[in-house]
Fold this protein.
Amino acid sequence: MPPNTPPDPTADLDPEALARFGRLELLAKLVVEGVVSGLHRSPFKGFSVEFAEHRPYGPGDEIRHIDWRAFGKTDRYYVREYEEETNLKAYLVLDTSGSMAFAGRTISKLEHARRLAASLAYLMIRQRDAVGLVTFDGEVRSMIPARSAPGHFSVLCRAMEQARPGGEAPLHRVLHALAERIRRRGLIVIFSDGLDDLDALCQSLRHLRHRHHEVLFFHILAPEEESFDFAGPVRFQDLEASGRAMRVDPSALRATYLERFQTHCRLLRERLLGMGADYQHAPTTEAPERILLDYLARRTGRSHGVPRS
């Protein structure tokens, strides 16, 4: 194990439980039930559903929620959704582009993002909010509709576990497409390193806000990206478009790189907050429970009238 790598919280879990539920599913439950369970009400209230609706029956839904009258008329299975059953519709947008495969002293950015996304999904579903999932690299790879049934959590975890990094990440194009496709007001949670053209990315985020979605951006970063503390010479490889590799002396690039990188991160955060969205720094050196607690504490504080920092 590389130095400073956080311990794996699932390393000592029951093998039978791992086989039954899957590693990601157990990890998320461990994070939420062990740490975040002190939140006695959903921090995501305020997105109230405006009307009840029917939607097609799908994996993870409970049979008892099928509308048999609708089945008799259409010969198709539909599930009733009621206002009191679904407080929120959220979509988790998971960046699976090549750059998310990077792992240095810690787990990869994609694995870190998966653990955060799964933990947040479990928290929301246990509070009867509906959660969907979008994975993408050069294009949208999967889009799972938002549902609140307990069995839906396993569906989301399997999809995240199957996601593999590769390709470029035109995050702004994906978000524009989501803004057009997801008509119903809800929460869009993005897990990405944000390596995209800043102006184009912010325009797509404003598009989501224009559609009255709330937006939360978890900025997934590796420590090497933030410090550029490589001891040279180092071989760098483009993990996305070209795959090209080159050897450089990092000391000659460090000052310029850090200036540009820090400016990009600062402007992304400022523009998100400026449009009424949320930004959460989510480095791979930080345990998922600490990141979620930090964000949820600030969110619940704002709901009680505490000013945003």
The chain is about 40% helix and 20% strand.
